[in-house]
Predict the 3D structure of the following.
Amino acid sequence: MKWSYKIGSIRGIPIKLHLTFLIILLAFIWVFAVNDFRIETLGITLGFGGMAISTWLKYLLGAIASVLFFSTLLFHELSHSVVAQSYGVHIRSITLFVIGGVAQMEEIPREPRMEARISAAGPAFSLGIGILAYAIYYAFGPASPAETGETFKNAALIVVSIIAFYNIFLGLFNLIPAFPMDGGRILRAWFATRMPYIDATRMAVSVGKSFAIAMGIFGLFLGGPILIAIAIFIYLGASGEEKATVISITLEGVKARDVMTSVPDVIYVPPDWTLEQLIDVMFKTRHMGYPVQESQTSPVLGVITFSDVQRVPASERATTRVEDVMKREIVSIKPDADAFDALKRMSSRNLGRLIIMENGQMVGIVSRTDLMRAIQFRGAQK
């Protein structure tokens, strides 16, 4: 099942909606429609539940407010992307999930000033639009939901107050000094001006984990499951960032050609082999996947893996041929590509190996095991 759907593009960046986004969108529509939550100190109302209007109109207004708010969330991510593009970073896409928006960048520059500017762009946009919206609300408000004479004005003011409050909250929340929040990257950038990048990452991760632990303890005592969930999210995000950075730096300077198995040492299988023949080769060579070729010098027709074989009942493997079940899409990378880029591509596509292609011809193959072994060896040297 396809989970993400492209809905358009901005500045050449594909914009996608993940199916889980519908959960949070519907939840926000419901919350805005039925609640009459007021923050007296700010003089704002964050829901249409107290308005003397029909239920369907409350849900319509809730939908309008939700769509406008998530549009600002999209522009929060677009702000990151625009600044990143100005530094030559390729943006693969922006996707809206149940947890919010994610801009998928090839790689954030390690230069501290660049990373800080890219990371600060999103919170700056959210705080800017939130403060502007609150200024508009302050100039024309406050809203009086119970009054029936100014329905349109009150509805518009409540929408503006929702945009103001949640964008200011989003901007401040993202400045929390912990990965994967923008504040964690800004903190790392600051540390990186004073120490090596990997040490800066570990320092920022330590701060983020400490923050997450404190938040989790706070949530336990207050009985706040949302705080606990956020704490777990931050802790895991910090751990993931540390691991990714360590791997990236460990593989720095290593190219795909340095770790690949080169032709003619690559074991290939002909397309007319039966799956029983393939299993016999798998047992002897202890590999889990192979390129499919007529001969060693012929074009690669596809890739077949053990998981492909497993989908075929054992009783049919003697008559089923490799070409009947192989994957015909060939995911490849050039020999001069960074080894870390190869690992990222494998992870994003959930693959165990990549074909190394040059001038349309296979020159080798690199597996996840090859890359993990390179990480272990180079890590032992440092």
